[in-house]
Amino acid sequence: MAQVEATTERIIAADAETVFDALADYSGTRGKLLPEHFSEYEVREGGDGEGTLVHWKLQATSKRVRDCLLEVTEPTDGQLVEKDRNSSMVTTWTVTPSGEGKSRAVVSTVWNGAGGIGGFFERTFAPKGLGRIYDSVLANLATEVEKG
Known about the structure:
Elements: E1 3-12, H1 16-24, H2 29-33, E2 38-45, E3 53-59, E4 65-73, E5 79-84, E6 90-97, E7 103-112, H3 116-146
Antiparallel strand pairs: 1-7, 2-3, 3-4, 4-5, 5-6, 6-7
């Protein structure tokens, strides 16, 4: 099994603390940022950063729906890590300052891909598809925090 990785980033016209707080606000802001690929969003424990347990279904393609139950940790300042209890998938959100009143938000997801020909297609196409999904989450995040 090969590890598959999808990463995308965006410069956002808001300070890093504002951007991070919006991402970590699972009980409020986060649900508003999710595009149509996410459904059944539900905070099961916590709701603000570390210690949150959140559920959603992620529909990456018309046939592929992943049922996710994510444990949230904050291993370092400006970083949120979402570990899926139902799979090997781990998503890391990193927010760092990027000049005056701006920040850089990077989202990276890794998981153990399938073997064989299915794995080849997964490694080839899944990172682009997931990248597009997270691009729209970051665009929604920018819209949310830049209006302040």
